[in-house]
Amino acid sequence: MLSYALRTLTRMALTFFAIVTIVFFATRLSGDAIDYVVGEGITSEDRALLIEYYDLDKPLFSQYLAFLHAFTDGQFGLSFIERRPVSEIVVERLWPSAQLLLPAMALTLLVSIPLGIAAAIWRKSWVGSAVMAVAFLGYAVPNFVLAIVMMLVFSYWLNWLPVVGNGTALHFIMPTVAMAGVLIAALTRFTRNAMLDVLGQDFMRTARAKGLPEARVIVKHGLRNAGITILSVIGLQVAGLAAAGSVVIESIFAWPGIGDLLVSSALRRDYPVLQFGVLTVALAVIVINAAVDLAYAWADPRLRHTVKA
Amino acid sequence: MLRLLLSTALAAGLATGLAAQEITVGAANVSSYLDPGRDHSNVGSQFYYNSFDTLIDRNHDTLEADWQPALATEWKLVDPKTMELKLREGVTFHNGEPMTADDVVFSLNRMYQATFPPYVVRSRDRLGNFVKAEKIDDLTVRISVEKEEPLWNTLLNLQQVMIIPEDYTKGLTGDPKVAEDDDFEAFSLAPVGTGPYRVAEFIPGERLVWERFDNFWGEKAPLARATVQQIPETASRVTALKTGEADIITNIAPDHLAMIEADQNLRTVGSATPLFHVMIMNANHPKLQDPRIRQAMSLAIDRDTLNEALWLGKAVVPSTHTYKEFGALYMPELTTFEYNPEKAKKLLTEAGYDGFEITFDTHPTYYTNGLLAAQAITEMWKEVGINGRVNIAEKWSGGSPDLMARNWSNPMYFADPFGSFGVMWAPNGPSEGEGRFNTDEEYAAIWERFRFSKDVEARKAAYAELMERIKQDPPVLPLYRPFESWAMRKDVSWAPKPGHIPYVLDFRAGSISFASN
After folding, report:
1. Chain A residues touching B428 at Cβ < 8 A
2. How large is the C-alpha radius of gyration of chain B?
3. For chain A, which terminal residue's Cβ has fewer other Cβ atoms within 10 angstroms, N or C?
4. Residue A60 within any structural domain of the chain
């Protein structure tokens, strides 16, 4: 178990370093910060002055080294636009994002696991078909479409729900649902498939043959085994989808989270903020993946033993 | 959970019983910093007039320059190159400090003798003639210029020379006796001025809250509190207005107007913004050096059709680089730019145009209707035989030697030809500095007469000569003044005022009121 954990951690660190490097160079491919920070249409003399002031005159590689070095002071450099520590700007945005993400994840689990199980058990009846039809539809509708349609219906027409920011409990409803929509669709399908794999296994027949009640067979023997697959899907796919979703949903609902920050700093070419923001999201996904990996090993004794061997 | 529900109910109750003295503005953009000195962005200009004052103000209800005393009560030239100003007594900054001559001298010299790079840049393109400000006594300052200045009032009314407190600013970081770069950076996140609203809360790029400043020297502000909330998505802004979360929203594209006006509780106001969307052409591109080619590129464009198709006819197409805001210097009689496809074809033949491709660069979204206009322009070029291609790129190409043509904007930074054409197309100015426009001694001499003649007629005559030079060897074509709209609840009475620069959200006394009051 320990060496498995160590390996996981090493992989995490390497992944993080690769992301740091890719993020640094990819942001710089997306356009020239100088145009946005310095402004267009100024004399070349003035341009040179501002380029120097913002430290954009250094060669790319030494900017990269400075960027790596900035990790050591805990501030991660200054925003080009706001001129305050990047860490401060990003940290302000973490809690609102978490406030949106956690209810969305909870809603996803609460809805999609029962639905997925139902779709697996009653796969041949109309229940299974209906669930899968809705899940496919949900997967096909992009979250921004869902968000805008909800906004049109519940705010624009009915005037029931507010659309801007995170001021009250009512503000949480549409963004949470819009975030959870695609996650529910994805996880319902995975849960169904995982359950189907398990349902045909010998140990399920054995459990039934022992005379256990059907509900107990499904939950104790079925879900616990399917759970391992579901867990890894949550780690690998759902976390990624949620991170991408927050970028879109937060912009639409003017939600002051990290996704909104990423969009605005990308538009303003505020590289230091953009880099650190992307890294934070990446780190969150890596940590979730690693946590799932470890939980996976814990939940599946076979894996533990294979690694040891 | 109970607390959450209670606070929701409370918030909903407050929203319905909304006091008319508090409003929320849903803005497409909220600035990342607030410092009137370094800023000349369209986003920034929304916010300064409520919180800051200049020495000399103007009546914003009229297009004609009608100068009003503000932080200075009197001003006169004591010699041709020195102005003496008497300061208003009893003016207080939002932090409680009294305003003195020291603050004024500090504010002005941070621009006139700038060392902080963002100030240096802003100062050079418009305040280059200003040498220094000096204190004479606690309520008297003198300002000196290098050459006799015909635009004294205009250039003392600029956003860039709004007055900020000296001690407060210097004390923000480092040594409290010295103005360091970091002081100015810190100021831009915690701005303090003398205007009728103080900045009570500022979250960069997200929210700005103004509160009425009770010690304001002038007429009391009509609103107790105004919140500007950034709502980047147009659909969300419109919905927020509809749900009552916002009372006024900014930056409504023409295609959303009908939807808003269909609601009887809402209304829109709009104006052709004092800013030109322009096409620039690179006079130094090897294939475009013959001015006849660039003349043809310009003559082929039917700007009235662009206006009808893209702006529902609400934009304003100019005959020359001029704005009615210039007052006495408004010169619509000049015809510098026109649509004449026949002449375009003839010029192309004369210039021996062989069908080489001419690219028109545009950012995909930066200018409203920018991409559509670019596509229409290349189609119009095709009509006269120009082989045009739209090149969509995020990167600013205005300084690239490969540039052929692209879109850009020339805002009116202040109401004088010097404040729009003058800033961008001066000898050694930004356009020449980027290598796509050339001037010579003759142009510089005309420019000098335009900039510094004291007689308005002499300035107009010189400007007409500059326009003739632009017509003969064109680096630019102003397409139109885009139509910009705001929407609000029907009982809110607010509209952009004609005497302001673009986008100012003026909530001072006399500028906003409520029908129910």
Report:
1. 43
2. 24
3. C
4. no
CB A86 within 8 A of CB A79: yes
| Dist CA A180 CA A192 (whole Å) | 18
Task: Give the list of residues 6+ apart from residue B170 with CB closer than 8 angstroms, or none.
Answer: B176, B177, B178, B179, B183
Chains A & B: contacts with CB separation below 8 Å: 132
pTM, whole model, 2 decimals? Answer: 0.86
Per-residue pLDDT band at B37 (split at 50, 70, 90): very high
Identify all chain A residues contacting B245, using CB atoms and an 8 Å cutoff. 162-164
CA distance B372 to B366: 12
Strand partners, A85: A78
Distance CA(B256)–CA(B26), nearest Å, equals 15
- Residue B142, pLDDT > 90, answer yes
In this predicted structure, the answer to whether residue B265 has a pLDDT above a threshold of 60 is yes
Nearest CA in chain A to B243: A159
Among B101, B127, B99, which residue's Cα sits nearest to residue B114?
A: B127
Give me the CATH number covering residue A218: 1.10.3720.10
Instruction: Please indicate, yes or no, if residue A4 is contained in any of the structural domains.
Output: no
Distance CA A299, CA A294 (A): 9
C-alpha–C-alpha distance, residues B405 and B294, integer Å: 9
Domain housing A218: 87-308
Give residue A13's pLDDT.
84
Other CB atoms within a 10 A radius of the CB of residue B402 amount to 10
- State whether A46 and B118 contact (CB < 8 Å): no
Give ∠ CA B306-B310-B314 in degrees, rounded to 5.
Answer: 90
Chain B's closest residue to A149, CA to CA, is B235
Residue B268, min C-alpha distance to chain A (Å): 17
Q: Chain B partners of A53 at a C-beta cutoff of 8 Å? A: 117-118, 181
Distance from CA of B210 to the nearest CA of A (A): 18
Say yes or no to pLDDT of B330 above 50. yes
Reported as a single tens digit per residue, the pLDDT across B218-229 is 999 999 999 999
In this prediction, residues B119-147 reach a mean pLDDT of 95
Pick from B10, B207, B243 the residue to mutate for testing the A interface (most A CBs within 10 Å). B243
- Whether A43 and B124 lie within 8 Å, measured CB to CB: yes
Q: Report the residue of chain B nearest A39, measured CA to CA.
A: B41
Candidate from A83, A163, A251 with C-beta closest to B239:
A163
Q: How confident is the model at residue A226 (pLDDT cuts 50, 70, 90)?
A: confident
Q: Which one of A35, A42, A148 has the shortest CB-CB distance to B395?
A: A35
Find, in chain B, the residue whose alpha carbon is nearest to that of A40: B396
Enumerate the residues of chain B whose CB falls inside 8 A of the CB of residue A39: 41, 121
Confirm or reject contact between A263 and chain B (CB < 8 A).
yes
What pLDDT digit, counting tens, does each position of B167-217 carry? Answer: 999 999 999 999 999 999 999 999 999 999 999 999 988 899 999 999 999
Contacting residues of B for A268, CB less than 8 Å apart: 32
The model's pLDDT over B95-129, given as tens digits with 9 standing for 90+, comes to 999 999 999 999 999 999 999 999 998 898 899 99
Q: What is the model's pLDDT at position A268?
A: 80
Task: Please report whether residue A279 resides in a domain.
Answer: yes
Q: Which of residues 122-151 of A touch B (CB under 8 A)?
A: 148, 151
ipTM: 0.80
What six digits make up the tokens of A52? Answer: 């120097």
The model's confidence at residue B2, banded by pLDDT at 50, 70 and 90, is very low
Q: Are B153 and B416 in contact (CB under 8 A)?
A: no
**Can you spell out the DSSP letters for B401-441?**
TT--EEEEEEE-SSSSGGGTHHHHSSTTSHHHHTTS----H
A264 near B CB under 8 A: yes
In a domain, A34, yes or no: no
Among A51, A152, A164, pick the best mutation site for testing chain B contact (most B Cβ within 10 A).
A164
